[in-house]
């Protein structure tokens, strides 16, 4: 299966996106299609053996829309000067047509040659010409409405189009009768109403476009972090190139004040970099030869040369943007409510409008009143606000998460995070920094300390576990070279085995001794080291324990505060670790965690997560994304604390690029406020339609309350603005 995101043109409301989504999901070869109204794109998972991009674009065309090709970047709709001028002209025209057609009703001065009573022909000609201009201005609405009606996916444009065309044809026929001498029909022209409807629909879309751009701004900022150009070294000569021209392996130059162009590794020089855009660390970090650097980082004070490693779509920034865009193309369960309603809404409104028209005629109302009511029902019921209610809030919140260093892979996480009542933490690299140091060595052998650590470090260098870093850092710091190791075997949850000079060396915790039936005569020493908060590594050769090594870690400075906040939120916190019980309890008590589960293997962690879920707990698992991957995948929400360069390899639901546990609290709070915001939006959207459709039908006419098509279009815009403004309030929220 292959996945592609295509940009779509022609979607104006949720009925459009739902209709297209339903149509695509019916096509053979498409496994899943999700259409995003706000981002104006469709994410399609399909069988590449039977379909290709061209065929997918044909499906989109057959559904009444147009594919603009693969979605490559987030474009903000910059309003051109010509478009603004056109809008100003039509604003003047709509005011003018309202004045000449309705001004005399409120005793405003009448333009003599446009007086409907004394100069009906010139009056009608003026209305007709202005109306033609508005029909051309709103041709895209009429065209889309027709196309979607023909393709059986009626949408907002269909409702407006039916109303506008009906009003135009009726007014045109009355205009003909007036010309033929029946001047009494001069008051039965509704050109100004249809002009007003088109104008206010256009105004609504103008405002809607601005609001959608605001939801994309946070993502757009990520795209513009990297510089447009960079300097590379070719045959000892410097050459300025665009980012697209940089290839893997190129040597790139960065001077003080410049931004890093691509992900790479420093090969010469040292500097301080501002990586706050991705790590959240406000202080500049020191980087020197051998260190990895991230595109978009600001070089403060050093001249460095670095080798390009990740370029283009492989870069950290591209990966982040891809994750955020893909997340926006998944649907939160709450969005399905609006989607389901919208799919039936437009056909239902058309039926209601037709039945109202027939009912009016049956009870003796004039044809004109029946027609105006018919058009009013169609216009007032346009489901713009309903279509915006969920996706706007989701995208605003995803943008907030991205700027706070929280990358969400599925939008349903925003809905579900608030349900979390149990958070399970790994210890090493999650509650601690994972920067372990050798604290104490109890050497039972005649091997020197440095030789012993050379043996252990050489074997551990083949491992990705955080414990290995303590040994490799020691070797690097003391300039001790590694020695050749053969037959490496990693035992998750136990340790690692390797052969040096044909002698098998076993490294691991006390469980590895039991596994290989080695008698442990050093329990008291292990307990003493554990009581000091050390993680224990046994060094065994030929079933003889050579040494005990105590590895110490540093607890994250924010861990205590985060655990306290979670406890105050009535969220149960659990430490789940493969470390020994004494060490685990020592650290847990320091940071305020009561429930500790220790001495567990990775596969046992999975069973514990499943057990918690079976107890009807909604479990969030937070780990470092290495040994915790199975448990993270088994939880309701999997969270990994990763550096930015590991994003592409991660398989969790949420990635904390800031490497800060406070992001978990932020995620839960953003989720809480997002769901509340969506529910408010849905309430106002449903309330608006429940209130306005009966008024449009005329239920309140006996009380002197009624509306016409023009007022209906204004009311429709106001409902959308209410949803937009309510959603944008999320940007002003504090989440920690």
Provide an overview of this structure.
With 736 residues, the protein is α+β, with helices and mostly antiparallel strands. It folds into 5 domains: 2-72, Alpha-Beta Plaits; 81-219 and 325-394 and 680-730, no CATH class; 229-314, Calcium-transporting ATPase, cytoplasmic transduction domain A (Distorted Sandwich); 408-424 and 558-664, Rossmann fold (3-Layer(aba) Sandwich); 437-552, 3-Layer(aba) Sandwich (Calcium-transporting ATPase, cytoplasmic domain N), CATH 3.40.1110. 48% of the residues lie in helices and 18% in strands. It has 24 helices and 26 strands. The strands form 5 sheets. A 7-stranded mixed sheet has the order 14-26-25-24-15-22-23, sandwiched between helices. Strands 6-5-7-13-8-11 form a 6-stranded antiparallel sheet, with no helix packed on it. Strands 16-21-20-19-18-17 form a 6-stranded antiparallel sheet. The longest helix is centred in the last third of the chain and has 36 residues, at 662-697. The chain is elongated and about 120 Å long.
What is the fold's blueprint, element by element?
Layout: E1 2-9, H1 14-25, E2 30-36, E3 41-46, H2 53-62, E4 66-70, H3 81-102, H4 120-137, H5 139-150, H6 156-179, H7 191-223, E5 229-234, E6 237-242, E7 251-254, E8 263-268, E9 271-274, H8 276-279, E10 285-287, E11 292-293, E12 298-299, E13 304-310, H9 316-328, H10 335-362, H11 367-380, H12 384-403, E14 406-408, H13 412-416, E15 422-425, H14 427-431, E16 437-443, H15 449-460, H16 466-477, E17 486-491, E18 495-500, E19 503-508, H17 510-515, H18 523-531, E20 535-541, E21 544-552, H19 559-568, E22 572-576, H20 581-591, E23 595-597, H21 602-614, E24 619-623, H22 629-634, E25 637-641, E26 654-656, H23 662-697, H24 709-728
Parallel strand pairs: 15-22, 15-24, 22-23, 24-25, 25-26
Antiparallel strand pairs: 1-3, 1-4, 2-3, 5-6, 5-7, 7-13, 8-11, 8-13, 9-10, 9-12, 14-26, 16-21, 17-18, 18-19, 19-20, 20-21
Helix pairs in contact: 1-10, 3-4, 3-7, 4-6, 4-7, 5-6, 6-7, 6-11, 7-12, 7-24, 9-12, 10-11, 10-12, 11-23, 11-24, 12-23, 12-24, 15-16, 23-24
